[in-house]
Here is the input.
Amino acid sequence: MDTDYFFTANEIKTAFQEVKYYKNNAFYHEIKSIHGHDAFLIEFEQLNNILKPIFN
Here is the structure.
């Protein structure tokens, strides 16, 4: 979430960079929302677009 203040987008991007050294199937996606930390509960269409390829 680009407006999460508990775990900022920059912190998550940094963690992702570390993870991808060990896991080649790790991906980074960012949900754009004004709703902060709980945006994934509201921005279900964006989340669906991220998760759909995993389950198909």
